[in-house]
Prior knowledge:
- The complex is a heterodimer of chains A (330) and B (484).
- With 330 residues, chain A is mainly α.
- Chain A has helices at residues 6-35, 44-51, 55-61, 67-76, 84-97, 104-118, 127-151, 156-181, 194-206, 210-216, 223-232, 240-258, 264-279, 282-288, 290-313.
- Helices cover 70% and strands 0% of the residues of chain A.
- Mean pLDDT of chain A is 88; it is low at 320-325.
- Chain B is built from 16 helices and 23 strands.
- In chain B, a hairpin with a 5-residue loop joins β8 (261-263) and β9 (269-273).
- The relative contact order of chain B is 0.18.
- Chain A: Pfam families: Alpha-E.
Amino acid sequence: xxxxxxxxxxxxxxxxxxxxxxxxxxxxxxxxxxxxxxxxxxxxxxxxxxxxxxxxxxxxxxxxxxxxxxxxxxxxxxxxxxxxxxxxxxxxxxxxxxxxxxxxxxxxxxxxxxxxxxxxxxxxxxxxxxxxxxxxxxxxxxxxxxxxxxxxxxxxxxxxxxxxxxxxxxxxxxxxxxxxxxxxxxxxxxxxxxxxxxxxxxxxxxxxxxxxxxxxxxxxxxxxxxxxxxxxxxxxxxxxxxxxxxxxxxxxxxxxxxxxxxxxxxxxxxxxxxxxxxxxxxxxxxxxxxxxxxxxxxxxxxxxxxxxxxxxxxxxxxxxxxxxxxxxxx
Amino acid sequence: xxxxxxxxxxxxxxxxxxxxxxxxxxxxxxxxxxxxxxxxxxxxxxxxxxxxxxxxxxxxxxxxxxxxxxxxxxxxxxxxxxxxxxxxxxxxxxxxxxxxxxxxxxxxxxxxxxxxxxxxxxxxxxxxxxxxxxxxxxxxxxxxxxxxxxxxxxxxxxxxxxxxxxxxxxxxxxxxxxxxxxxxxxxxxxxxxxxxxxxxxxxxxxxxxxxxxxxxxxxxxxxxxxxxxxxxxxxxxxxxxxxxxxxxxxxxxxxxxxxxxxxxxxxxxxxxxxxxxxxxxxxxxxxxxxxxxxxxxxxxxxxxxxxxxxxxxxxxxxxxxxxxxxxxxxxxxxxxxxxxxxxxxxxxxxxxxxxxxxxxxxxxxxxxxxxxxxxxxxxxxxxxxxxxxxxxxxxxxxxxxxxxxxxxxxxxxxxxxxxxxxxxxxxxxxxxxxxxxxxxxxxxxxxxxxxxxxxxxxxxxxxxxxxxxxxxxxxxxxxxxxxx
Lengths: 330, 484
């Protein structure tokens, strides 16, 4: 018998997702900031807006996509639900709801993080300072993750936290790959050029995967190897396969340890995704379109999240998820 | 000790003839004298720095209440003053006995009101004052609550007059708040001022949650082997949400909202968990009566749970506090409490009431109108210090407005003489100055009554102000009850 309220399970799951989302948005901005210093320059910022499918909202309020406007939109814009400020606010609001369950240290850390985010001004995202700011955001999110690992009581809530984090991370890794592949579609001639390679290098670094990648591929860098690494390498904690395995493992343990009835539909879906991740060679993924494959993964993870919500949080069946205070899709 | 040997924090301090809590405690207790001596030798600038550090800590911990403006929700901390308010063991003995007596009388009165109404028939309290009261709940008539306890958590607002005598200003028998500040203020002082507390015997306050949980278990419906207690909150937008979190954590019980609960066809209460419905036995509710159950009270309430009153009436769930306690802490009924203590308990009141004129009575109205410039006039239905006219401090114009309001609706007002409220030395922009304080001790009642040593000391931070409410510029202090 479990005593965890559905509402809390939902809030924990979304707390984890929002922090993970904040960290990864910072990673995406960071990699793009690196790209934008190259010869293709200013073209790149519009790609971020396309990546998150935010064009309508962005165009209406900002018009031209420059470093300044895009950074403002994704860092400090409190009207934009996809901004890091909004995500940290949402994480902190969920943490406020969850204060009876989470450790005081988790709360103080998030509350302080949010208070500092809220105090940021336009000058803090100026070009010469933004790299440091993004590094600070990543570190703050990682501090949260570490404090959570070290202090959060390991009851049912923990499993929802871990599932939320892994689902979000899988989704975000696909977006990070997409920044490069979908949005900077290189001309055939450019593939393998120094510019192309330096961009793949930046993608790996922003996913904190460069050194791990070098350990298995001491020299050379190809699209296939980078995509293979970020999609299928189970030893790399940000790879899609590692994240999907983690969701599967947490959900299985949660069900058996607490004798829960729900979750079987989500497990079935995870099995399908894992079968693809196990058997699909990267060459075929690239041949059939990396972007389409990434899209498919995103849809599957969205469905898994929805099925978990239906079985444990009380989302109504046969309806799309309702956006509540606990969640909004970025 | 801090600062140079000749520094004296209190060299400019003058209580101006008011009863000073710190001076009194230092005269009457060795511990009190020791604390005063330590404070005296502190350096003002260091003290300011330490106070600023302490306030930042409150903000980071989110020990805040929320103020809503049209545009934004602002988290404010309750301003905290670092100089403690000190009560001697002798002071506490009077308060503790007096509060227990008062809670016993409130519970006896409520049982009577919702059963035989003897006190009304015997003319101790005017029947229309009770039965016509907006907080009287006819649904409670004839309903037996466990152990006869209606008021499980009570806050008694006390002031201290010019001679140092304690007087009751009002009772809070619905959902009194502020206890979280009592415990958190202590924790903050322990972290920030260990040098001030070392070797001083102070009664602990950290066991409040345990005592409250014990009492809630005691009032559970009979034959439940291990009762499930929950705390019912209006949610994160409530200004007291921090306190709800605090109490749920201290008790280790789920903090639920109305939407987490449901009542089944057999009138049993359940909460929605990740594995379906789980039975609930005791609810510490921090929602007012009106919003508790839309089937019975406010139809538009989104905060409560439909059917809760059905379950309550059947004895399937216990509520703390009981429904309908507002009829006992009404500002007009308050005036009759000393008589009710005699009527139910055959005792003399240990804590006096502030002399109160009930303006619904014509003699009291005439007296109030004649002495308006000496009296404090309060609307009976308002909380938070709103609508009060302090005669001796009011302008001619303000007195005239007050007079018109009194004549238009006399039953809505009481008047009391202005009390020369006691003061505490308090850190201000001008250095250490006297500021007026009150005290809200908290009493917890299951089968018996326990009083948390000390209580919430609220301090009017504005110079000369007598109004201590947080909405009116009030702050709080840690309250120390000395062991000797």
